[in-house]
Design goal:
Enzyme class: ligase
Family: Belongs to the folylpolyglutamate synthase family.
Structural class: alpha/beta
Radius of gyration: 21 Å
Distance between the termini: 29 Å
Keywords: ATP-binding, Ligase, Magnesium, Metal-binding, Nucleotide-binding
Organism: Mesorhizobium humile
EC number: 6.3.2.-
Shape: globular
Number of helices: 15
Length: 441
């Protein structure tokens, strides 16, 4: 008898079903009905959409709930190294990535229920989420939207404990629209009539207006960043404020001032979902939160060993102009505290605004090494990516790999140990973690 393997099951699905997204809920709804509608048997759900900050909000929400002693399931996408990262099942002492045998059995069961009908792999794997989360005990489930909101496969959740909309900017224009108000309308599609809504810090007043109007039309109790809650830095700490008062907390473990707003959205979301968070639990959450490939400092591993001695290495999967801005701001903060020359090692895919991403680093980065993203069919050739960086006003050169870039730096560097940002794509960041020997756990 052949032992089931989740990776083999998913590889088989990839040969049977199309890549991409289905902008309707018909297929996933049909499949879930065959499975007995497991999405209707979940613990209270925190449903998170947005362009940037979804993953950080999920990480903070998980940290808050677990610090308060709750058992929590978490679904995020995409994964970085292994498919299992998308499914963190509740466990005493902190959630654990799904065991391979449990994962593989759930995939096989869902595929059998689908009966070979036309569907996408993401829809099947979303149904797997609901199977796993409904059959394992927990007190809360955090579910991150994959793409958009209105037609995302996760949007079959009828009554979320809270819907969260994180910052919206231009991304996935081919699917969601070429204006920020159209994208905001798609993200707002996860709001459900009468269910609480938390709106995180928005970069666009137009997007904010669309979100508020949608929530009002659906009679959703709504709290808005900057109006009903906020967070700010004071004396090196984070102060969170809402109608219940102030919480003086440690600075979030995730670097960058943008994480204050992400943490605040998570606190507001967890409270709106009906959970009480003590000051002590919030303190613990800020110091224990973890989110790989989002301003993650790499301190050991095969690639780290190739870098110039004393180099400071950061990894971030942010891949659009909005993400570029917040990453650049986080690095500018590091520069204020501890000045070092900044070098980028970048790989991107062709569905993103590469020049817009690089523009955020003008005047901050000394040089860019561009590398191919071999983990995605949509990877931009390294020579083409170097041209995009130069269009943004940066000095750039193509190289064959991250290892090559680090060794070039090591062999030619003369001066203070550099600060290195590796990033530009989550596919790329995942490949870097795999090559470095430090996958998420």
């Amino acid at each position: 008898m052949t032992t089931l393997s989740a990776e083999r099951e998913i590889e088989h699905l990839m040969t049977l079903h199309p890549k991409g997204f289905d902008l309707s809920l018909d297929r996933v709804t049909r499949l879930l009905e065959r499975l007995g509608n497991p999405q209707d048997r979940l613990p209270p759900v925190i449903h998170i959409a947005g362009t940037n900050g979804k993953g950080s909000c999920a990480a903070f929400s998980r940290a808050l709930l677990e610090a308060a002693g709750h058992l929590v399931h978490v679904h995020t996408s995409p994964h970085l190294v292994n498919w299992h990262e998308r499914y963190r099942l509740a466990a005493e002492g902190g959630g654990k990535l799904v065991d391979d045998d449990v994962f593989a059995e759930a995939i096989a069961r869902v595929a059998e229920a689908n009966g070979g009908q036309k569907i996408t792999v993401f829809e099947i794997l979303t149904a797997v989420t609901f199977i796993l989360f409904s059959e394992h005990p927990a007190e809360a489930a955090i579910v991150e939207v994959g793409l958009g909101g209105r037609f995302d496969a996760t949007n079959v959740i009828r009554q979320p404990a809270v819907s969260v909309i994180m910052p919206i900017s231009m991304d996935h224009e081919a699917y969601l629209g070429d204006r920020v108000e159209l994208i905001a309308a798609e993200k707002a599609g996860i709001m459900k009539r009468g269910c609480p809504v938390v709106i995180g810090a928005q970069e666009s007043d137009v997007a904010l207006q669309v979100l508020i109007e949608t929530a009002e039309r659906l009679d959703c109790p709504t709290v808005v960043y900057g109006q009903d809650f906020l967070a700010f830095e004071e004396n090196g700490r984070m102060v969170y404020q809402d109608e219940d008062g102030l919480m003086d907390l440690p600075s979030p473990r995730l670097p960058g001032r943008h994480q204050y707003a992400n943490a605040a959205a998570a606190i507001a979301a967890v409270k709106a979902a009906g959970f009480e968070i003590s000051h002590r639990a919030a303190e613990r959450a800020m110091t224990h939160v973890a989110w790989p490939a989002r301003m993650q400092k790499l301190t050991q591993g095969k690639l780290v060993d190739l870098a110039p001695k004393g180099a400071e290495i950061w990894l971030d999967g942010g891949h659009n102009p909005g993400a570029g801005i917040v990453i650049a701001e986080a690095l500018a903060e590091q520069e204020e505290k501890n000045p070092r020359p900044l070098v980028l090692i970048s790989g991107m895919i062709n569905t993103k605004d590469q020049t817009g991403y690089f523009s955020a680093f003008k005047g901050l980065a000394r040089h860019v090494y561009t590398v191919p993203v071999t983990s995605s069919d949509a990877g931009v050739p390294n020579d083409e990516l170097a041209l995009r960086a130069e269009e943004a006003g940066l000095s750039a050169e193509p190289v064959s790999s991250v290892a090559s870039a680090l060794m070039l730096l090591r062999d030619s560097w003369d001066g203070p140990a550099p600060r290195i940002l590796i990033g530009g794509s989550l596919y790329f960041a995942g490949a870097v973690l795999a090559e470095n020997g430090t996958p998420p756990t």
